[in-house]
Amino acid sequence: MTTEYDDGRLGRARVSDTPELTAYYDELAELEAGALWTVANDIEPWYPQPKSVPVLWRYRELRPLVRKALDLVKADDAGRRVVMLVNPGRKDVSAAVGLLYTGLQIMGPGEAMTAHRHQAAALRFVHEGTGAWTIVDGQKLKVGPGDFAITPNGTWHEHGNESDEAPVIWQDGLDIPLVNAHDAGFYEVHPDLYQQPGKVINSSLLTYGANLLPYGAQEWSRPYSPLLAYPWEPTYESLRHLARATEGSPYDGVIAEYTNPVTGGSVMPTMGAHMQLLRPGQATRAHRHTGSVIYTAAKGHGYSVVAGQRFTWQQGDIFCVPSWAWHEHHNLDQDEDACLFSFNDFPVMRSLGFYREEAYTDNGGHQPTA
Amino acid sequence: MTTEYDDGRLGRARVSDTPELTAYYDELAELEAGALWTVANDIEPWYPQPKSVPVLWRYRELRPLVRKALDLVKADDAGRRVVMLVNPGRKDVSAAVGLLYTGLQIMGPGEAMTAHRHQAAALRFVHEGTGAWTIVDGQKLKVGPGDFAITPNGTWHEHGNESDEAPVIWQDGLDIPLVNAHDAGFYEVHPDLYQQPGKVINSSLLTYGANLLPYGAQEWSRPYSPLLAYPWEPTYESLRHLARATEGSPYDGVIAEYTNPVTGGSVMPTMGAHMQLLRPGQATRAHRHTGSVIYTAAKGHGYSVVAGQRFTWQQGDIFCVPSWAWHEHHNLDQDEDACLFSFNDFPVMRSLGFYREEAYTDNGGHQPTA
Amino acid sequence: MTTEYDDGRLGRARVSDTPELTAYYDELAELEAGALWTVANDIEPWYPQPKSVPVLWRYRELRPLVRKALDLVKADDAGRRVVMLVNPGRKDVSAAVGLLYTGLQIMGPGEAMTAHRHQAAALRFVHEGTGAWTIVDGQKLKVGPGDFAITPNGTWHEHGNESDEAPVIWQDGLDIPLVNAHDAGFYEVHPDLYQQPGKVINSSLLTYGANLLPYGAQEWSRPYSPLLAYPWEPTYESLRHLARATEGSPYDGVIAEYTNPVTGGSVMPTMGAHMQLLRPGQATRAHRHTGSVIYTAAKGHGYSVVAGQRFTWQQGDIFCVPSWAWHEHHNLDQDEDACLFSFNDFPVMRSLGFYREEAYTDNGGHQPTA
Amino acid sequence: MTTEYDDGRLGRARVSDTPELTAYYDELAELEAGALWTVANDIEPWYPQPKSVPVLWRYRELRPLVRKALDLVKADDAGRRVVMLVNPGRKDVSAAVGLLYTGLQIMGPGEAMTAHRHQAAALRFVHEGTGAWTIVDGQKLKVGPGDFAITPNGTWHEHGNESDEAPVIWQDGLDIPLVNAHDAGFYEVHPDLYQQPGKVINSSLLTYGANLLPYGAQEWSRPYSPLLAYPWEPTYESLRHLARATEGSPYDGVIAEYTNPVTGGSVMPTMGAHMQLLRPGQATRAHRHTGSVIYTAAKGHGYSVVAGQRFTWQQGDIFCVPSWAWHEHHNLDQDEDACLFSFNDFPVMRSLGFYREEAYTDNGGHQPTA
């Protein structure tokens, strides 16, 4: 341990137990009290000490188990038929990393779920299947592979798969652990069990065109995006265009955030989402920041180094970066670009004044790996 | 005059001149003072009393004169070779309506203007010619018919026409009268006379894709849009999509505002701009609002009724709506949609708390015309 | 003329009249059009060219005339009995400077005016008399010498003087010329001629204590301060405290802005107001900025140099600083501080992106005077 | 259980274990995955299920133990000599309620602590002693009983007691559990161990007077209040004034939030603080809301009913209200008002869109108590 982080320094708590103190602590405990100095160094660490660890979930390993769930449980009994990804350090709160939850949901051909709403906000990233639909506060949306969609907190929602043939597997991202950490969870089943959607499919996609706001948009006052889905094709095309105009980020390549068109801000107040493009053969430099991120390989293959561990990914794989962990990304394809979808709690970090970022400066910006 | 607007009422100034008062007014004048009641009813009118009147400028009438300017003055001598449209009531301030200026600028094949910057903000709407380019703060943009582009206040800018054959005619919109009304005008010639543009053409168009914000966009802190051009095709396509999702405004049809992607707000703090689509045969209802508007027919033909006067327009025509004048729009084509581009001072109305709007309720929402 | 501001330079309009051009201009005029280059240099000046000039209005000169109005016109006939201060360069719009209006209003003992409301925003600064009251949107306020109060745009208001003995003279500041420049003026007489005030006098003063916001204040959504009056004593005390904590501004001494406690912003969207304290003998350095200011000497005596002209003031005197005019302030008392109240259109300058400021660097920051 | 909250309903997870499923869960566990339906009802509860319970800490019981700490540990060894108040349901994170920490800190005559800074934000409420001082980012403040002060996140701070005679006991409030829940904690010892304070004591108190913002305040861009202390006397006086102007809140009596004078918002982005006055004999009605609150009796005596439990308090006592717990307050003195200081995480609730509130409508707004 360096002097910098030495708990024996003046300025840190360094009181040893004595019989007298132990007796004193007992007295305090009787009054629902305690001595700060017995825990001070633990609860005020030098830098973040997440219990979350870096994890890679391979889609080819998870997929058979996800499909198995189709036979094992009825959708109506499960509520949602989801295999959740659980960080070994966060089993107590069912988090994939930090205060974020993620899982793979499967809907069989023709299935439809009942409608509910909850305080937790949700987002979807479609892995496979072409029949997926969702109804969010009465607006019916159809989404396909690579599409990103949101179910902002408090909105009624239900999903289904209108395909006759293939199941849909999409990834859910929710802030359930965040909501629970804040003792703010509510849940309601829709009084009619199902919503009556409006006639126009994908109406918010039709409404929020490129850099134009329609009549009435100024009245939108909810804290989330009125645009509820962001299809893959224009997203990918935008990144390709962006790659012609900019170098991008040294840490993330050509990266853009899905935004609320009414404010230019994040899609929801608790979670943001990005798509990033790594140029053929690109190796980004490492950085770290507060805030947790869940990545999904949307295109191509490569590897990321997280806290010194190398995680090799291909399309469909999911991995996480805990708060303050160094991370960098490598596209292993020398001819094709690779894309990573990700979602995070950066909006929370910024709202609460917690965001902090640092570049890895040694070794040309690349972490040594074991 | 109705009782409602009777200046003889208690609550209005109603002092008649007397010799004693006249002498008093002279005394006041010697001290650079005056009696409020002599002007109160004039300077605090019951409702807005713009000096601007509704005007239609026909493109087919103006075009020959605009082209004539090519031969009459050199671009270098004119600064900009522009035929400005001047409201009969606002000749003193060279305004087309209210505090807005507009004009038709022509650039001959191969011409290039010198660079300058000014406090006034400018916007462009291209009428004809395919060779137009503009460099705004080092960013080179190419614009064609129907495209909308901005030159925010204080940005260096220069323009030209790279065509070998045809001149470019575009419409300038500026807030020059607004800036002057506020005694806030500054002007500078570029020290090198010409800018050195960056290599990437249309870089802001490449950068601000559909509902995505790139890395670094959060740092944008200027009060105007970093996206500097809005081409016709995606704008028109967006309106067509919008028309499928919404009824639109009863007063404007399917209308959308060009927005700053970083904030969702107007493109500039002093001027906003819209494109609106009138369905085949659509006749909107009349309303009025504070704020002035300059319209340009971008597609199709129709007529608008402004303050009871009917103005028939076809593509390229320009007309204005003074503050608080009733207005409504009619698409005369029963098969094709029509489009009106417009720009306005609504951002000012909103910033200053001056915006007010009222629907015309008589006669099914349509004004009687002479 | 320096080269910098030479209208003969490349980059400025420099077209001389020819018979051919004169004929062309006539053709344009027939179409309600003109050639930009004939006016370009005038409407796009190198720097602001206000028509307003610096003026000092001496209270001891104005006061007798203001009092005379008591006898000459009935309050009910005058609407308001006000001697307005008119800038020689702005008589056409009844402005004291720029787009700001000011005047001295007198109310005799026991007088009460009828209620009205208008788009223009108003503010008051009390010169003399202890009986003044105002009712603003149902809230009755009592104000005395040195007090500052606001009547935000659109609020019903009426005034009076409950003293048995002495008249009240207060200074009105309004944005009437601004409202009219924007064609946004509305005016209404109260349907009942008089409001029914709430029981609690000065309720907003009781409500907005020091750096505390009461229950419900978060719901305040109007664009102006819910606190309607700022008495002299705590204002002066605050400046005295501030003088102990800070050097203040090199251009203004110890200066503070009256603020909307709910936002920390200016009291109204179109006008801001300040009180500033000049230490005994203090001579501030000169600067200039866009935006117009009307000053009132609230305490002490001194002089200000505006655009090279020296204006000596004592308590009650009023003077103006046009946009972009150099100005500096001198307290002539070596033992006592002096205070200047002022109001301005800075909120407009900032909203519209027009604010610009520059320090006078020659001669130790002091302008030469004739 | 009512039908409303029945986990057996369609729309909830209701899958029973089978051998097949158990085997499946094991397979999932090997991949760091799980079945959502096994935990869904727990992690998406019908309404908040805080582990925190209501607690009252009596000052007369805690005080002897707090004083005892003076002898038991040296300030330099303890870091800070604090008896923390620990909720029985939140011992794992050292929280008094929800994600808030509180404790009673004692500083002996003449003591001074070393300087540090951390991501966690802190606030102080002084219980006893007149010698307390704190230096926050170089600004020295003196605080006495009833004063509220803040140490915003990331600011260097150190404290001490300049009295020769009596110790200081103040209450610390921190968001340590919040910071840790978000994996965002940082801590630094000051490189020089002690700061060099500026010469002016209480400079921010002198700077932020009543509803005035000084020159330069517009440049303040940090997410917390530049005003660092709010003394008892003007706070209490403000509430007394407020009581004359308003009924106050039915749930809280006459209540006001300490605010950031530059924005009108909460003092810090993670914690807000209020002072409330209960009129003689006043019994407020019950309500509940998301967000946790820690109350300290600042004046008088009374009782509060929290989640049906009655807690009788007198000056100095501290109690907590967990998220979504019904609560109401009663002043037991029929002649004197009583005051409750409190701090909370409402700014977080609002930023994240989690704030929700509900009135207790039965029984005249009063909870039955055991």
Automatic annotation (TrEMBL), chains A, B, C, D:
Superkingdom, taxonomy of origin: Bacteria
Matching InterPro entries: Cupin_2 (IPR013096), GDO-like (IPR047183), RmlC-like_jellyroll (IPR014710), RmlC_Cupin_sf (IPR011051)
Keyword annotations from UniProtKB, A to Z: Dioxygenase, Oxidoreductase
Domain Cupin type-2: 104-170, 276-339
CDD domains: cupin_GDO-like_C, cupin_GDO-like_N
PANTHER family: 1,2-DIOXYGENASE PROTEIN-RELATED, CUPIN
Record-given protein name: Cupin domain-containing protein
Organism whose genome encodes this protein: Streptomyces mauvecolor
Organism lineage: Bacteria, Bacillati, Actinomycetota, Actinomycetes, Kitasatosporales
